[in-house]
Amino acid sequence: MTLSRLIPALGLALSLAITPVLAQSTPVTIALDWTPNTNHIGLYVAQAKGFYDEAELAVEILPYTDTSAGTLVANHVADFGILGSIGLFTQRTAGADLVATYALVQTETGRLVFSADRQDIQTPRDLDGKTYGGFGSAWENALIGTIIRHDGGSGEFETVTLGTSAYEALANGAVDFTLEVYTWEGVKAERDGPAQRAFRYADFGVPDQHTNFIGTSSAYLADNAETAKAFIGASQRGYEYAVAHPDEATDILVAANADVLLDRDFVRASLQALIDGRYLMAENGTAGTIDPAKMDAVGTFLFDAGILKDGNGAPVTAKPDFTAYYTNDYLGTTP
């Protein structure tokens, strides 16, 4: 090789040696269980603050659809999804490939509510014979019946399936009571009225639970263990950051969902309720940890109530091994 050809070749080799190799981001998708709200805030924070970028992930938060997140995950349409507790137990028992990997909330956010001016409702047994505005699941009947019977009632009530219209029906007196998520509908009622009173499930014989999770499939975990750990760890950082910086986190969620027209003050109040109630972060300062005792208690409750069914729709006759329904192995370490 002549000197004139050698010098450019050496220059190219040198440039390749000193140029850093850019890491290829791994794509990850997560399906929401509802329109964007404060339960999802850590995902948007992790995305906006670059936590996913630092983990070399290209995360796409999929828009909410009528198909449940659990179905999307089990059918490998989404890598991860926001899974409701009851949906996780029922779908997994029926054969869906679902595994909870992060507890979004540390304790139950739901409650049974009724108008504050109902003097005829003082304890759960007063709900006997009254009308419930419901959402159409077997879980609701088992839940409400347990609450009433725990207080000495018969557990008999009328049900009108209304979906989210139940809240309007409660406000105008068309139904006597319904169920709501305290940290969303409950906060809205506290701010805008009408005033409500409520019964907490766990005060009346129903086991406390993690209301929802980030979950995936065992197939995904088997093939993408490191990616799963990176995603859960970065998401955990997002939720921890939201607790520590609620004003900034609120602005991030609202800005990321401008098309939804979220009320900034309401979102901030909802996030504060999640923080004050120790929903996002436990008393010991940890976020995301799934409590085995809670999982077994809720799973057993559902099994005893005949709600858990196999793929053919028949109630299972042997209690499943609920330890296979979740894992804490992919959580990060809290700083």
TrEMBL record:
Descriptive protein name: Thiamine pyrimidine synthase
Keywords per UniProt: Iron, Metal-binding, Pyridoxal phosphate, Signal, Thiamine biosynthesis, Transferase
Signal peptide extent: 1-23
Organism: Devosia crocina
GO BP, sorted A to Z: thiamine biosynthetic process
Entry annotated with the keyword Metal-binding: yes
Gene Ontology molecular function: any one: transferase activity
Keyword Metal-binding part of the UniProt annotation: yes
